[in-house]
Structures are given as structure tokens and as C-alpha cells.
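Entry 14. Two folds queued back to back today. First construct below, sequence then C-alpha cells.
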Amino acid sequence: MSSKKVLGESDLIFSSASFALKNALGELKRNHQSVGKRLRSIYSDATFVQSVADAYNLPLVANERCGSWYIPQDASVGFAHSKKGSAYFKSTDGHFGQWSFSLRRLNLQVLDLIGQHGGCIIVDSTRKGKSMPDALSKTVPIWATTLNRLLFPDERDFHSLQVPGNVVSASEAQQIDLRIDGFLTQLGTLELDIVALRAQLQERPMRCVWQRPGDITSSDGCDRSRHNTIVLCTASNFTSTEASTDLNYIQGAADDHETWSLGLDAASFWTHCERFLNSAEQDLPELVATVMAESPHSRVVNPPVLIKPTKMLWLGDEASADVHASDFDLVISCTMSPQDALAKQFKKRYLCLPCTTGKLGSRQLRTELSRIEELSELGNFKIEPSPQKILVTCPSGTDLAVGIALAIVCRFGTETGSLDLNQAAPRINKDIIKHRLSWIMISAPHVKPSRATLQSVNAFLMSD
């Protein structure tokens, strides 16, 4: 009895026409994802965002990093509404089964704006195949509901999870809602100033509504005397996972801009948007290079940020150290390229912790953190008679420097924020680390320490 032969890959013969077709389809896909089409798609989506701002008369807040591409940096480009703030809500905190209230991304910086205007519009987008990013359908609602329960315990009408019913199923919403009290307990360990936060919101809880292209845009039901309205705006039009009928439109065109933008950033795009939109595709690489070389935005130096409630610890990037170092008594730099001028100027008061960037740098930090014990030997850095000023930096000022600052406030800090580098704290646990991290996240909401960096800090602080 003979058995049928199973065909293998080597038995298949493709004609040259098949290969030609495959190459043509690949070229068509690459052309559809071109930089020019992405920028025109972004501009088109931005006009929708403007219509939402017109309807609600609320300030626009970009959910970074993607959201900034859909909002002009100022009103000079012909749009009436410009970017008024930034938020950092991650879609991963809204993924199914991974729902979370992030203690690393508190986003309390938007509360003032919300309270002053009766709400805000948070802008984001998503790729083909989804009508709304998880950051807007779940992460922000989790955040708003948890804060409502913390700040307004008597306003029970605002304690239930609010999600878009046509995007999030009733079953998933119920599962998330069951976790909110756990998030509330975690948030309570940070000992936030509830009275001050409630005052920022003008004593009004938050309510979420959603807007997508094609939805009816109406501010009806937004009672600003009763609550603050958080409009969660998806900028991009929904297209199916099949080939789009509009070959000139790319859904979620701004996503992962590092992979397609040729080095262009959102601020420079909006400053020169007419030039970009009116240029031929083949001219864009050279135009981007020219604009970025001339852009003053690329040369902006952000001043160091004081980590409150301390009076002596500041956070910055390497560029800020070059400009502002003379204002400080001690500089700690986490970099593979020590700043020779600072080393010469500060001598023993310049401490370089050699770490590269990325996950490898975070792992290297675990070893280098032990060197902060040297701080007590670098002079008499006591808080009396007047506070000394310490600047902590890394290339970006948002990751490794945060880890160093966190280690310092945990190792040498008190509950009130006083620092004494001559005396280390006797006991450190996870609750203390989370609480001190909240100081940094509230003082410098733009920072984004990686999980690997925070794990290295935890390992160092709790190794005794």
C-alpha cells in the first residue's frame, strides 16, 4: 500500500512572474508607507482634532509620544488650537489582563489644566485594525476612576469605571472594575497631598467621554459645574486590516516615528509643515536634514528640575549640566563620556558613573550605584546652615539619572525630604521606594525611568 508523498518547499517551483509580482507588491506597500503620505495623513487627522477642540472648547493635551504629532506647537500654522500640555498614558497598562494604574506615570501634571478649564482633550492615535488605542479606552479611564475614588470618596456617582461600551466589552470592564480598589490601595501608599490635588481639580471629579472620526461631536452633557470632562480623542480614522481603499491615507501614521521620520520631530514638523506638505517625496530626506540642522528646537537646553520636597537635589540632562553646572556644588553624571570640563572644574565633586544607554546601561547601573556611598567623602554636604545643591544627570535626563536620584533620596533622605549625605537610612523597603519615586514623578513628570532601571535601584537599596 503506497502512501501519498508530502510536498516540501524544494518541490515547489515559482515562475519569474511570481517573484516579480511579490516584488511589486512589496514596493507598493513601501510606497504606501512613504514619509510624505504619513505627514499628509497626520495633517488630515490634525484637522479632526481641531474640530473636537472647537466643539468642546477645551485645551489639547498630547499623549506622548504619538499625540504631539497631531497638535500644532503654537497657533501660527493656521489652526486655532495648540498644544497646552503632555501626558504619558501607556497602552500596555490597558492591555487585556494587564490592567494597571502606573505609579511610575502618575500624570498629576495635567490636573491643574483640567481644573482651570473644566477638563481637557487628550489626543492619541492607533494603527490599522483598531478604532481606539488601549491608552484611551482603558488606561486613562482606570486613572480617572482611581483618582476619583481617592480624591472624592463621597462622589459615588463617579466611582464606577467609565469605558466606551462599543470598544470594551461588559465582561472586561467588570474585570477591570474589580481591580480598582487594589490600585487605590497602592496609590494610597504614596501619601499624596489629597487636599491640594482636589483643589487643583477645583473640587470636581473627572468624567471621560470619547471622540473618534465619524462620531457625533457634541459637548452636551458636559456639566462643568458638576465635573471635569476628559475628552479622549482618537485622531486617526479607522481602516480595516485589509488593504485600505484610500491609498493616500495611513492610519496611526505618527506611531513609532523613529522608524520612518528620517530624524524629524513633531515640533519641527509643525514649524515647517507647509514646506513638508508641498515637497515631493524624493526631496523630503534632504529637507528634513536641512530643517533639523537649522532648528533652534534641537538646541534648546531645559533647566534642571528640583526634586521636591528636597531642597538640594536637582535632575537634568548632560546639556543642562554644561550650561548650569556653576549653580551647583556637586554633579553626578551617569554617562560613558565623562564631561572633562566639569571634571576639571569640580575635581572630586564631579562623580561619573559609567553606564551606556538602554537595558544594558540599566544593568550596569546596579553595580555603579554603590558609588553613591562616596558622597559622604566628597565634602561636608550637610543641610545646615544652608542646603547644598546636587545635580544628577544622564544623556536624556529621564532614565538613569532618575535611578540615581531615587537611590539618593531613599538612602540619605527623611520623610520630610531632608537629605544628609553623612548618614544612610537604616531600613528601606518597597513602600519607601515607591513613595520617594512619587516625589520625582510629581516634580519632573516628563521623566520615564525604565523598568530595568527601577529594578536595579530596588536591588541596590534592598540588598542589605
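Second construct, same run, same settings:
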Amino acid sequence: MLLIQAGTPPEDIRVIAGDLPQWFLAAAGCRPETMDIVKVYEGEPLPEPGQHRVAIITGSWSMVTDQHPWSEATAIWIRQAVTQGMPLMGVCYGHQLMAHALGGAVDYHPDGREMGSLEIEQLAVAEPDAWLAGCPPRFLAHLTHLQTILRLPNGARALARSAHDPHQIVRYSPTAVSVQFHPEFTSEVMAACINARAQVLRAEGLDPAAMLQGVSPTPTPLMLLRRFIETHAGTVSAGNSAASLNVAMGNHPELPQGTAK
């Protein structure tokens, strides 16, 4: 499995919750040796598409519209990988970068920031999608973003929305999907992000205390992350597959982060 790391949290979040690879390994239930990590935000080169069974593109503290050279190079790689049919899953920044790479439009959301543990609603067109089979029609997800997909690429379909954003889950092809929310976040990570930005949130007219009070477990996004990996890479152990099923059935409120500092 390939983790395309598009950024790293600020120090005030890292000291509490660790770095992105730790979050994804813990959430996916994968062993470290099953994941190659490429820090594209530091200029590390990506391998040729197809050398891994699946790739996940992480969130970032950058903006897609910044068009950093490393980000634009990753967009070219995404186009090549999708053309080859390589399984890809984008998360937050990765979600927006996939849309940008494939011809969509990304920019700041006209209504500002979306942050907290918020409700996601599946759309009617999502019903036949096997990846979402068995998911509740409405579920909670951890969110924090300023930019959004304003226009989908040709042929892409939105499968879920929130009250704030109409493009919470997008399918581009049988093997390429993306999510605006963060399936790798635990409640601890979500709370750390809110606390780290409390002053900015208050300046924007938002209520960080209410956000913190609303932080809740998000088992369905965890299940979707694991299901994507299991479907395309098969790297999750049998024990973790059972845990994934428990998550889907609502019997596991939230997986422990385990590796958090």
C-alpha cells in the first residue's frame, strides 16, 4: 500500500496525536511493513503508478489552489494512475487534489470553514455502489477544511453530502474514490485540531467549545477506509476484518489510535 503524504500537522497537534502515517496505520489496522510512505510535500518522488496495490492521498495544511510544484506533480501522477486503473482514495486535500487533477474546480468554500463531527448524508445515486453497501443513510464524520470541490470532473459522481458541502464522497471510476471528511481521525485528533485553532475559530464567529462538545466517534468512515483497502489490497488481517465488520454493525464505537503520542 502507498500512502501519499501531502503534509504534516503543526507541532501543537503532532505532540498530542502524532503524525499522519500513524493515524492512517491505526485507522486502517495495517502493519507498518505493509505501507510505503512518500512525503510528496517534502519533494520525495512518487513511484511509477501500478507498483502498489492501492494508494491513499492524505490531507494537508496546504491549499490545492496554492499549486505548489509538489502538488501539481502529484496531480499529474494521479491522472496517470487513474488512467491505468490503479485503486486510489483521496482524503480531504487528497479529495480536492483528485478532483483538480481530473478536470474539476477547487477553491475556498463560499460559506467558509466546515469543522467538527458532523452528519453526512448518502445521496440516492449511492445506493448501487458496492463500497457503500450496508452504510447507514446518515452517519457522523470528522471534518476540517476551508477549500472544497466547486465543480466535479466530467464523469465523476457525488455519492454523499453534508449540510455545508455537496461533495463529501466522490467516485471517479470503479477504482478511484475520494472523501472530504477524515476517516483516519479519532476523537482525540479532532479535538486537538479544534483546540489548536480555537482563537481563529472564535474570530470567524464559530464556537470551539460547542464543537468540542459535539466531537463523537465516527465508525462508518473507519469502515469505509478499511473496506477500500480490503477490497483492493487485501492487506488487513483476518482479525482486523472482523473488527471492520463490527464497526459497520455499530458494535465498535471507535478504534483506538494506539500509536498516538
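Quick look at the second one. The first strand starts at residue 2 and ends at 5. The chain has a mean pLDDT of 90.
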